[in-house]
Amino acid sequence: MQLHGALHREGVVGIVSHRGAAAIAPENTLTAMRVAFEQDVEFVETDVQVTADGVPILMHDPTLDRTTSGSGPVAAHTLAEIQALDAGSWFGPEFAGERVPTLEEFVAVLEPTTTRALVELKGVWQPEQVASLVEFLRSHYLVNRVALQSFELPTLEMLRETAPEFARVMLTREWDQAAVDQAVALQVSAVGARTKLFDRRPELVEQMRPLGIGTLVYTLNKERRWQQAAEAGMDLVVTDDPVSLADWQGR
Ligand code: G3P
């Protein structure tokens, strides 16, 4: 799946709903995902980490503290321990009892929809964990429905080897010639960065275009920012407010 081109609709940037519908429901929960799948977006973004007993779950932070009733590192807890926690009350009392979903539960909600998912592999992944994740997605025929992203070079290298047919996004905090060279070497579909980075070196974005490498910017929630991203020819915009962005685009 090519992100660049396929999703760039005549100057209209593609919308990525950040952590599900994170402005409406607690991020990365199934409720947030169900709401996000109803939105007019190109991708629903989520984050995946592995529990102490090896199960991929949806969770952004390395610790449980901010988004659940638990505390401590995600990787130090089993699935049973994590799923016993409340992952909704922090967002609002009406979401009390919301649980941290597994990747498998997320895929079960994704499958009946037509939306694509952008899945970030957070933290450190072992080769067998990456291989198992890719095999799981493949066995569910999600090659054209799921794109994979990471900030971590070893993870991106593993994905290049084990998931060459999946769209992959290299997230980066540096934007220089070395980052472009790395994106080319990793054979990714797009590079993802904060918009300020791309603004600083637009010529590097231009250098990537003929190579078929697109751009994803995060996390833009204001019209002025969406306008800038559209004018700069960005392919995908990650936002907490996809409904307003779609309205602004006149979809
Ligand atoms: O899609 C990239 C973006 O989601 C990265 O930001 O903070 O949600 O990991 P963060």
Automatic annotation (TrEMBL):
InterPro entries from the UniProt entry: GP_PDE_dom, PLC-like_Pdiesterase_TIM-brl
SUPFAM superfamilies registered for this protein in UniProt: PLC-like phosphodiesterases
Highest rank taxon of the organism: Bacteria
Pfam family, one: GDPD
Positions of the GP-PDE domain: 13-249
Protein name per Swiss-Prot or TrEMBL: GP-PDE domain-containing protein
Organism (species): Leucobacter rhizosphaerae
